[in-house]
Amino acid sequence: LLTNKLYNVKQSLMATIPKQRVSVIGGGGNVGAATAFALIAKGVPAEVLVVDVVDKAAEGQALDISDASFMMPGTCRKGTFKEAGQSDVIIITAGARQQPGEPRSNLIDRNYKIIKSIMDSLQPIKSSAKILMVSNPVDVLTDIAQKTSGLPRKQVIGSGTYLDSGRLRNELSEITGVSPTSIHAYMLGEHGDNQFTGWSSARIGGRPLLEHPKMKDINLDEIYEKIQRKAYVIIDAKGSTYYGIGICAATLAEALLNNTSQVFPVVNYVENFGCYMSWPAAIGCDGVEQSFDVKLSKDEDKKLQTAIAAIKDACSKYE
Ligand code: 6V0
């Protein structure tokens, strides 16, 4: 009886705490809906708003996802751009996606206009809001979102190579037999054709990954190619990729809401490079808390310089 009473007190106290709000702009599409669903399925206790320029698509996804929320702490409904601007976390998944064989960088002209118009529609944006860019090319669009939102750099990030790094960790897990969560290895640079693997900084059980006995005869270039090609393979087979990025975006939103200070390879503004790019950063409720200095080999440093030059060049066309 006492346990029941305590449970009821806890429930009624919880009901008085206002839910944090996460809005998914482009939520009528595949990536947005997968993200909103992942937020609910992960048990994030937030009010999830689905927003889209196609009202009916937002309505349908929100109603469907709300059916999945009945036993979870989160809720889901269709929202407006104005409501989204007042959210704690604004996730942007709106815009054109790659066609089979098309590089992400090709999307920039189409998605630049979409992101600019979304930023206008969101105004006024809550000063403590964090923006999480997912639309591609994510590095350049994060830069554009920061400049047009008026928010400080540390409050605007992009999903970047978090998904690619997850693909890498799954691959390495199959080779080594160790859980992907115990493998610390990153894809870095650009979320696109100029990304590279940070092999020299990769660790497993406190040791350099490349010293693991099962890594001895592995062709590293083949692993890189497989990770690099995976999105193209999925798009070729089913038209688009969304489950993996959905869980990645929801995990990043959770870190922003719950102040977890976890380290992710996300698009953040790296002062030393003078641009936004995918680089390990600790994420908490203020956005980026710390960015890290990653040890690179000479060859990796060359790839880093290529990625920096490509991102800066692309960003300079949209200033
Ligand atoms: P989709 O299924 O076509 O959805 C896009 C949605 O955006 C649609 O519902 C549109 O109605 C909506 N939209 C378009 N313009 C606006 C606007 N002005 N305001 C609000 N909504 C708008 O595409 P999908 O969901 O597959 O992909 C969306 C974006 O995510 C693309 O740019 C992809 O390239 C990108 N991805 C990024 C990944 C990453 O790792 N960062 C991974 C996969 C896809």
Number of strands: 14
What is the SS-derived class?
alpha/beta
Element pattern in H and E: HEHEHEHEHEHEHEEEEEHHEEEH
Strand order of the largest sheet: 3-2-1-4-5-6
Poorly predicted parts: none
Instruction: Quickly count the helices.
Output: 10
Bound molecules: ligand 6V0
Helix share bin? 40-55%
Strand content is 15-25%
Task: Supply Rg.
Answer: 20 Å
How would you describe the overall organization of this protein?
The chain is an alpha/beta fold. It has helices at 2-16, 30-41, 55-67, 81-85, 108-122, 138-149, 162-176, 220-238, 243-258, 298-316, and strands at 20-25, 46-51, 75-78, 89-92, 130-133, 156-158, 183-184, 187-189, 195-197, 203-204, 207-208, 262-270, 275-284, 287-291. Strands 3-2-1-4-5-6 form a six-stranded parallel sheet. A three-stranded antiparallel sheet has the order 7-10-11, with helices on one face. It has a three-stranded antiparallel sheet with strand order 12-13-14. Strand 5 (130-133), helix 6 and strand 6 form a beta-alpha-beta unit. Helix 5 packs parallel to helix 6 and helix 7 (162-176) packs across helix 8 (220-238). The longest helix has 19 residues, at 220-238. The protein is globular and about 60 Å long. The mean pLDDT is 95. The structure holds ligand 6V0. Residues 25-26, 28-32, 52-54, 57, 93-98, 107, 111, 114, 117-118, 134-136, 138, 159, 163, 191, 240-242, 245 line the site of ligand 6V0. The site of ligand 6V0 has 33 residues, from helix 2 and helix 5.
